[in-house]
């Protein structure tokens, strides 16, 4: 099975990294092991699927790193005996699948192949969402509220009334918001808001 050629493994536990690499050595999967996301950022791969141990903040850090690089790799999270809530949170954070470790080589290869197929259908849309979210995350709470108002088609006066601030203050927040988003026009900002799933 040669669906996946490159697996980017991020796990701070050396023993587990070695065990996973060993499990996959019998398949056609090349494993690139990394201890943490920062280490990955210094030697960014050209392609692959990321298998990341689900530690607090790890998926968010990986997504921020991918957004800075302008690259999106499918993310599969894993941990030992994960609770349902933890799996849901990982998927909300950006993982496309979750694996409970330990797992047999066959199951792991099958899971990875399924994730790749799903990732191919997500492709560019997911990258745009990741990039848009990273941009929106730079905004202050007030700038985000103004963006929400702009995306809903409200005028500065109506946004001001809704937020209990003056239209002039809305204008200042709007200019800052456009600048931080790297948007030339309001329509660019609205597109970014939609891609970041701020508005439907």
Automatic annotation (TrEMBL):
Transmembrane domains' residue ranges: none
SUPFAM superfamilies with a match to the protein in the record: C-terminal effector domain of the bipartite response regulators, CheY-like
Keyword field contains Phosphoprotein: no
Domain Response regulatory, chain residue ranges per copy: 6-116
UniProt keyword list: DNA-binding, Transcription, Transcription regulation
Occurrences of domain HTH luxR-type (ranges): 132-197
Gene Ontology MF terms in the entry: DNA binding
Highest taxon above the source species: Bacteria
PROSITE patterns: HTH_LUXR_1 (PS00622), HTH_LUXR_2 (PS50043), RESPONSE_REGULATORY (PS50110)
An example Gene Ontology biological process: regulation of DNA-templated transcription
InterPro entries: CheY-like_superfamily (IPR011006), FleQ (IPR010518), Sig_transdc_resp-reg_C-effctor (IPR016032), Sig_transdc_resp-reg_receiver (IPR001789), Tscrpt_reg_LuxR_C (IPR000792), WH-like_DNA-bd_sf (IPR036388)
PANTHER family per UniProt: DNA-BINDING TRANSCRIPTIONAL ACTIVATOR DEVR_DOSR
Name listed for the protein in its UniProt record: LuxR family transcriptional regulator
